[in-house]
Design goal:
Blueprint (H helix, E strand, L loop, with lengths): L1 E5 L3 H11 L5 E5 L6 H6 L13 H10 L6 E5 L3 H7 L1 H5 L3 E5 L3 H12 L7 E7 L2 E7 L19
Parallel strand pairs: 1-2, 1-4, 2-3, 4-5
Antiparallel strand pairs: 5-6
Length: about 160
């Protein structure tokens, strides 16, 4: 799988940790933010004070990759707005998109893009503030033909 995470916050880093440990394949963190002292104090996937002033995405990726050698990860320092304006195919090339605390206008654009084609990836939206959080999942349902429970009733066509 190819997971795109929009934000390198403590919350999104923890979400990724739970996907990297079992081996998701590949992840990309997109975040233009620079690490602040507050980030360094609450994100286990930053290297403490030495990460302050550096790209948050570039600092988080190496420590997440250390959790599982079979998982590859990259940092993208472009803003979500820039990607939506100039490289929407980058987003739709992933198999899952996770957005954390995205601004409402950008979230609406992202959601509209991903809903516009049934082959585009599902979207997981996470909003959090301290110990309070909520999440939403946007995906299309897949209908399948029901097969009889009795294997003897299967026929070869």
């Amino acid at each position: 799988s190819r997971v795109l995470v929009l934000s390198a916050s403590a919350t999104s880093s923890s979400i990724l940790k739970n996907l990297v440990l079992p081996g998701i394949g590949r992840f990309t963190i997109s975040d233009p933010s620079i690490t602040t002292p507050a980030d360094a104090g609450n994100n286990f996937f930053l290297d403490g004070p030495s990460s302050i002033g550096k790209s948050r995405a570039k600092e988080v990726v190496p420590l997440l990759r250390e959790l599982n050698d079979s998982v590859s990860g990259i940092a993208d320092t472009r803003s979500t707005e820039d990607i939506l304006d100039n490289d929407a195919g980058f987003i739709t090339d992933h198999s899952l998109v996770i957005a954390h605390n995205l601004a409402p206008a950008l979230l609406e654009r992202l959601s509209t893009l991903l809903w516009s084609d049934p082959t585009y990836p599902p979207l997981i939206v996470v909003r959090s503030a301290g110990f309070l959080a909520e999440f939403f999942i946007q995906f299309r349902t897949h209908e399948s033909r029901l097969l009889p429970l009795n294997p003897e009733s299967y026929t070869e066509n």
